[in-house]
Design goal:
- The chain has two domains: 2-66 and 243-259, Glycogen Phosphorylase B (Rossmann fold, 3-Layer(aba) Sandwich); 75-241, Rossmann fold (3-Layer(aba) Sandwich), CATH 3.40.50.
- A six-stranded parallel sheet has the order 6-5-4-7-8-9, sandwiched between helices.
- The longest helix is centred in the N-terminal third of the chain and has 17 residues, at 18-34.
- Helix 5 (101-115) crosses helix 9 (211-223).
- By secondary structure, the protein is α/β, with parallel strands linked by helices.
- It is globular.
- Helices cover 46% and strands 13% of the residues.
- It contains eleven helices and nine strands.
- It has helices at 8-11, 18-34, 43-53, 75-81, 101-115, 151-160, 175-182, 195-199, 211-223, 225-238, 244-259; strands at residues 2-4, 38-40, 60-62, 88-92, 121-125, 143-147, 163-166, 187-190, 204-206.
Length: 260
């Protein structure tokens, strides 16, 4: 019995140090071949296991993790702590190529120039990761690097945002989009990997390789109040699907199946 979270190292090998990539490839392949049952975090990971390692689909069971963030906290105090205005878009994650930071910033700059709205900030939360390039944000107005975000600050940062923007190139399971939805924040995310299956119709989906598409999505997220309200309402229902109670029950069922 084994759990596989994602195969991002195969989709974006350049985003991992070579030694780490070789170890992940070997250990995942070996474990997946030997296991009688495999739990995958998403249907996207299930498909990757079959595609890249030839694992039989009937060996794999999708068990979604739960999301337990609570929408609590002093939004105004957190805005002051991070020096944020009342109108901001929020991203949270390690700043690395796989998270598509460069295109996100380019799309934000494009929208900002076309809309003339200079009172909205793009707040990038998270530490710089492998292959981070400062040039991604240099010279772009109203982009704020928040650095590491304390756990206690995450929920109010979601809650205070106009929207959560997450055009990541690959996610085995995108916790941040579901956390944002749980906090009542409308989401824009990529239409690839696990993200569409997680958000369903409760988010704006865009091609993460298309700066124009991301920019148009930002315009919808910021400027269309009725769409924002609709996305929030859908999110409240959608996120109910992802609980640790459900995850535990499904994992137990797979363990019992493997033991037979």
């Amino acid at each position: 019995m084994v759990t596989v979270h994602d195969l991002g190292y195969l989709h974006f090998p350049e985003a991992h140090p070579p030694k780490e990539r070789r170890y992940l490839d070997w250990s995942t392949r070996y474990s997946a071949k030997r296991a009688t049952r495999i739990m995958a975090d998403s249907g996207a990971t299930q498909s990757d296991l079959s595609k890249f390692y030839g694992i039989e689909a009937e060996k794999i069971r999708v068990v979604y993790p739960g999301v337990d963030i609570q929408p609590v906290g002093d939004v105004e105090a957190i805005r002051q702590k991070y020096d944020l205005p009342s109108r901001y878009l929020f991203f949270l994650g390690t700043l690395q190529p796989r998270k598509n930071i460069a295109r996100l910033v380019q799309a934000f700059a494009k929208w900002q120039g076309e809309s003339g709205q200079s009172d909205v900030v793009l707040a990038l939360g998270g530490k710089a990761g492998w292959l981070y390039d400062p040039a991604w944000t240099q010279g772009v107005e109203n982009v704020r690097l928040l650095g590491f975000v304390d756990d206690a600050d995450v929920a109010p940062l979601y809650m205070g945002a106009l929207g959560f923007v997450f055009p990541s190139l690959y996610e085995g399971f995108g916790f941040p989009v579901l956390e944002a939805m749980r906090c009542g924040t409308p989401v824009l995310c990529a239409n690839t990997s696990s993200l569409p299956e997680l958000v369903g119709k409760a988010a704006i989906l865009v091609d993460p390789l298309d700066v124009d598409a991301i920019s148009a999505g930002i315009a919808q997220l910021v400027e269309d109040d009725s769409l924002r309200a609709e996305l929030i309402a859908r999110s409240v229902e959608r996120v109910k699907k992802f609980t640790w109670q459900s995850a535990a029950e499904n994992a137990l069922a797979v363990l019992e199946e493997a033991a037979r």
